[in-house]
Specification:
The protein is an all-alpha fold. It has one domain. The protein has eleven helices and two strands. The chain has a two-stranded antiparallel ribbon. The termini are far apart.
């Protein structure tokens, strides 16, 4: 029983981090209808911003988080204003291809500025493991998980209780009606990209603390995309639930199935099998909006 509890709690911790990454996709899609495939590279840039603030400028961790958020916000605003705003009204596939191109550009910039080797964050949290009864979590997982949870709570509060969040939700539901009610759609689009970039940066810092950073860190973003699909592309709550489901399945498969089938990578495959089965029953995801087309 203790072993099962350990796997479950570790899965929830992993899933919470997955959820924060997934929310970066959801925020942009909810407001603009565009899937941002540069999310992973925005994560990577945010992690490098924070690492530079700590390792080079010797700033404390809290200040480094602010630097990462501010830098990512600036990148997101610049991308939306210079690259994406001129493409308003174009087919979504064209904008998606632009985000794929941006991911390559960001990766190239990171390699030029920071080089291609792995880097580790300076020691931030106590090294002592966090004990929750019979469950023991490494500090490099437990504390980043708390950061992810705090970020998710703040995002949920922003969407639920602020005028900006109301405007973003209204735009996501019906852009034409929102425009008719006086909402500045272009401003909402810009805020969406800024917010998604900041979210991605925080996720990048969390992932970087756990496993180090390099220009290849952006690949994590694509690995998390099934979480977005599972929860529903337009659901923040779905991203949270999808992340936890994927994290728990991954840990249970790694704990119980990998020893039975050594060398087969069951841990990586099992969540995708579950994803296929769930989508067969609910193609729009667990909490996504079901679209009905009349012929």
């Amino acid at each position: 029983m203790d072993e099962l509890l350990q796997f479950l709690v570790s899965g929830v911790v992993t899933g919470g981090i997955y959820a924060l990454i997934a929310i970066g996709f959801v925020v942009v899609y909810k407001s603009t209808g565009v899937i941002n495939f540069a999310t992973g590279e925005l994560m990577m840039l945010g992690a490098f911003f924070a690492w530079t603030a700590m390792a080079v400028a010797h700033l404390p961790f809290a200040a480094a988080l602010l630097v990462a958020a501010a830098g990512a916000a600036a990148v997101g605003a610049l991308v939306e204003r210079v690259v994406l705003r001129p493409m308003l009204g174009q087919r979504p596939i064209s904008i998606i291809m632009v985000t794929i191109g941006l991911s390559s550009v960001f990766k190239g910039i990171a390699q030029v500025v920071w080089g291609g080797e792995y880097r580790s964050f300076p020691t931030i949290f106590p090294r002592r493991p966090v004990e929750l009864g019979p469950v023991v979590l490494p500090s490099r997982q437990a504390w980043p998980f708390l950061i992810a949870v705090a970020a998710i709570v703040l995002l949920a509060a922003l969407f639920r209780f602020t005028r900006t969040g109301t405007a973003m939700r209204a735009t996501a539901n019906d852009q034409a009606t929102a425009f008719g009610m006086g909402i500045d759609i272009r401003r909402v689009f810009s805020l969406s990209w800024v917010l998604a970039s900041v979210t991605a940066a925080l996720a990048g810092v969390v992932v970087g603390i756990i496993g180090g950073i390099s220009p290849q860190l952006g690949a994590v973003g694509l690995r998390i995309f099934p979480v977005v699909i599972l929860g529903g592309l337009d659901s923040i709550g779905g991203a949270l639930v999808g992340g936890i489901v994927m994290g728990v399945l991954e840990n249970l498969a790694g704990g119980y199935l990998d020893p039975l089938f050594p060398g087969t990578g069951v841990k990586e495959v099992a969540p995708f099998v579950a994803l296929v089965l769930i989508l067969m029953a609910r193609p729009w995801g667990l909490f996504g909006t079901r679209e009905i087309e009349r012929l």
